[in-house]
Structure formats: structure tokens, C-alpha cells
Amino acid sequence: MSAEATTPGGMARDRGHRRNVLGLRRLGRAAVFGPADRPHRLPDAIEHVAQAHRRHHPGADMDILCRAYLLAEAAHRGQYRKSGDPYITHPLAVTLILAELGAETTTLTASLLHDTVEDTDVTLEQVRDAFGDEVRHLVDGVTKLEKVEYGAAAESETFRKMLVATGSDVRVMSIKLADRLHNMRTLGVMRPEKQARIARVTRDVLIPLAERLGVQTLKTELEDLVFAVLHPEEHALARESLRAHAARPDPLVGVAEAVRLVLREAGIAAEVQIRPRHLFSLHRARLKRGGEPGPSDFARLLILVAEDADCYAVLGELHTCFTPFVTEFKDFIAAPKFNLYQSLHTAVADASGHVAEVLVRTSRMHRVAEAGVVALGDPHRTADGEPVTEDGERADPTRPGWLSRLLEWQRQAPDSDTFWTALRDELARDREITVFAEAADQGPLQLPAGATCLDAAYARHGQDAHACIGARVNGRLARLRTVLADGDTVRLLLAPDGSSGPSADWLDHAITPAARIAIQRWLAGRPDGDPVPPPPATTPGHQPARARPEPVETAEEPAAEVPGAPGAPVRLARCCTPVPPDRAIGFQVRGGAVTVHRDDCPGAARMIRDGRPPLPVTWPSASIGCRVTLRAEALGRPELFADLTEALASHGAAVLQAEVEPPRQQRVRHTYTLRLPDASGLPGLMRAMRRVPGVYDVSRAAHAR
Ligand code: MN
What we know:
- With 705 residues, this protein is an alpha+beta fold.
- It contains 27 helices and 19 strands.
């Protein structure tokens, strides 16, 4: 964290810098190009790091770590933390956190160097020359953008840059999380307002990222540190509960012993541990119970076994020999959570009624549960050290669906405020759903819980979703606002190009940043570089012909039936807008579709003259009765609404529903759902509406509102 880099006793920062430069000159060659006489033993300062690293990676190359340390130490020399400690203690502590989680050597190398480019004279080019492209990428990824250049947007733009870098190498985020953990551990030296601000960003962004990347160890410690800063009173209460609990005999000890006995008798090799919950988790238990946490809230039993199958064997024994709470059973092995976490969860009571929550997992699952993506190592190489191919990259488990989505929408976010708000909203959602396509050639979509058909449309079709007019969910017509459930099958209905667009109320029904940002851009008249159609000329009699929505099948208006062309798509002609119970005829057109006209339409007469055979058309009986939705596009002016409603009333139309969208670029859109006594009055009504001054288009709305 660069803001912390300082020099002692108010010494001018540039003096510290000068000492840095001297240090770099002195040590530069050795650090950058490798010492002429290699040190036979590691500098004492990185002995802890090396020990932790060897525990996870016995054959690791310590030489590169040693070089990274020497460069970082020389570069930061003369800089101090607010606490008074030499600055190098910070990158060392961050690297130790990662080494203990089992990070591989490249991550640790970059972690030692993570603040050099931001805070010292070291450049990214030097880092690349000495340590290679991967280390350069990682250091670049966590290097902050400068306030002088980005001003107030620096923090959010830094996060955007870091997430993009994370997209190509998730190790960037591992380093950032460890960096933030050490800064949170040492937050006490900051002013209270600054502590609170950093704690809130940690809560809103970094903790959800740690959760999504499965780095449980960092997540729980960050939660407790944030808890202490933002809720000191509740934090003190939780500590007091814990103290009181520790002073009493713990019934869980007896349950654990009984479980060990049962598993031993069943011949299952297992390790049974008591895992205390962290303070924030106790706080959650208190909120859930509305009072003092119960004895089973303080810890859980963790049962570690060797093989996946053993997990189910353990479960069988537990559910046979104790009283299970079936509602507490969850199988995160068969259905892993989105963050790679796998375990069986259950709760049992022993004969005397002591309840224990139990987690069952293999040692491998345990490592992933604790360290998440950090345990997965280098995303560019397989476990055997072979480079990952293009194909393999797509299957990269460290690049989960939420990250791909995030990388997609962030490119559309027009400014840092939009990005920052959308990021926090997205991270506040903690569950994903999968929806399937009707078409076999389209894959399933991963969406956050609460997503609607609109969100699915933008996830599936990008900007083309502007033309979305409806959806079919599990085979039935559904509104665009319909909230999707896990496992739904969705088909999205799009209007022909350019004939339909978002309305302002779409923002009330889209929750994903991808959809919201695209809709906002469209409403603001910035449809991705497409020029906005200029406001039409208003000279009466010279109103430009605009593409009107192609009428489509909706729940309100079932399509006409053409028995002579079974299976052919049926379109209602735009020239005469036939509605039931109009007498209508159809013509086969290019591509096999049938266009339906009123039988007195001049266009239809022309087609008959041209020798096109008319096909008989019938309306489904359910559609008798004329309810219709019309949309008027106009330039805003006083009295417009009054004049339009008068035109409606004079044609006997009852207004069932009216919507006026807020003007943009002086244009307004009125949408009316009407009941007409007789469908034959519709063309006359639409003409009357078009004659209202300012109105430049009236069309049948393409979808039910
Ligand atoms: Mn740092």
C-alpha cells in the first residue's frame, strides 16, 4: 500500500528515495542479474518464507526468491511503514501468508516485489528482465494507478485493472488478498476514518472475491478484522461469549471422542478435529438466534479422510450411530459450490442431546477449502508442469463463470462510478443459477440468483438483446421481468433488427451489470458506438417513414392461422395491421413465411394482380375481441398527452393502461393498452394518432406490457 511508504521522523521522502537509488546501485547488479558468487545460505529475513514454501513444495527453487528479496530490500531501503517498521517487513509478511497457503514460487517472487514498482525506482521492465514475463504481469496487476493521473477514480480504476489482470492470471488476486490481509492486520496505526473506509472496501469487494476464489483462510481473518473496525461493540460481545464458553466444559469434546470410537469400530481411517468458528461467525449465530450463541455455535467437527468414497462411509456411520438433523445435510461433493469448495455437511446429536455440526472431506478437499485457487497453483501449467493448451485454458477452473461475466461487462462500464457500483452489486450476490437453452446448440448460462429473462437475454445475445420482446420459460410465454429459477429452460424472442428497443422500466427488472450497463447506454443514446437515429423532422406531411415493429406472436395476440401452409411462420403485414376478427388473406413470401393482410388491403390486391395465390386465414377463436397495445413516438411538448388521449377517446378506445417514458433527446414514447369495440377501427385510430402534432410514429407494440 503506497500511502504507507514513508520515511522516519518527517524525513523528506526524496531523501529516502536517494538512499534507495544508492541501495539499488550497490545491489542492483546482484539482485537483477544474479550474484556473481551465489549465497550458500538464504538471508535470515526470508528463512520463514523458505521454510513454509518447502513444506508445500519440497523441490522449489529458492534462488529466485532470494534474488527477489534482495531487489525488494534494496529498493525499499530507507522507507518505513506508519508503524515505524522498515517497509520490507510488509512484502515479507505478505509473502509468508501466501507461502503458508501453499502458493507456488512465481507467486511468492511477485509478492516480494509487489510494491517495488509502485513505491520505488524499480521499473516493470527491470522486473521482466530479471524475473520474466509472468512475474512482471503479476506485479503490474497489483500496482496501483496514480492519483495524480486518475484523481478520485484511482481506486475503482485500480480494481478494474486488477480484475482484468486476474482474468488472465488469477494469482494477481491471490497477492492482492494477502496484501490486504497484512494491511488490515496493521490498520491500527491509521486514523479512524481511514480505517473505516479501508474496512468497508474490504467488506464490499475483497471479502466477496476471497469467498469466490475459495480462499477461506484469508476470508475468515479478513471478516474478523473488518468486524472489529466497523462493529467494535458487537465484536467485543462476541469475544466475551467466546471467553465465557472457554471457561465451561465443552460438550463437543465428548461428541468428538464418540465419533472417533464409532469410526474406529467401522474400520474407517479418519482424523476428527474440533474447529472453532471465527468471531464473525459467532456474531452471525447470535443474529440468527436473536441472543446468546448456543453451545453448538462455537465450533464444528471436521472429519478428514483419504478417499471421496470414505466421506459417504463416514456419513453413513454418523447417521446410523447418532441422531441426524436431516435438514442440515448438504452434499457439496456431488454439487460443488461455485468456488470449488467440496465437503459433506451434516449435524448430529449424541445420546445426551449434544448437537454437533459436522464437515466431512478428504485432505485434498480440505486444502482447496482452505486455500482455494492458491492451492491450484500456476494456471498456465498442468500439474506435471506442462504448458496449458488453448483448449485447456477454457476448462481452467481458476477462471470461473462469474469472473468471465465480470470481465465482459466491465468493458462496457462507461465510467468508474458505474463500474464500482456494479462491481459491489455483483459481489453482494452469493448464489448462482444455471439456465438452459431450448436450442440444443446453445450452452447453459450461469447467472446470479435473482436474474430475470432480461439478464439472460443480455448474457446470451449481448447488445442484440436490445431487441428482446419476450421469452419462453419452460415452454410457456413469460414476461421479460420473470425471475429465473435454477434449471429453467429459456428461449428468448428477438424482434427483427432495429424494430424494438429497451424501455426505461427494463432497469427495474435487470440485475446483472452486463444487462444494466447495456440498457443504460442505450437509454442514454450510446448504443455501443451505433449512432442514435436523429430526431425525425417535424414538418407536417413530411414525417419520415420509420421501421415499425414487426408484429409478433404474443400472449395477447395469437398469430393468425394459415391452414394451407402448415408449419410456416406467420407474420402480420405492416401495411394494414390486420387484427381479429378482420377478414384476412395470406401470401407465401421469400423464405417460406406467410404474410397476412386484411382482405381489402391495396397491397394484397396488388399481390393478387401479380399472380400470387392468396391463402385463407383464420383467427384462433380465443383471440376474438380486440385488445391492443399501441406505441406513439413523439417530440415532447405541452398538452401532448391530453391531445393523444382525446384522439383515443374520439375513436371509442378505452385506455386500460398508459405509460409515458421520460423524454430523452426531447423524444417521448407513450404506450397505451386499449380495448376497441371493433378491430376494424384500429387503422383509423392509428391514423388519427399520427395526425396529433409532434407524433411521428404510431405502431403496434411488439410485446405485451
Ligand atoms: Mn502492499
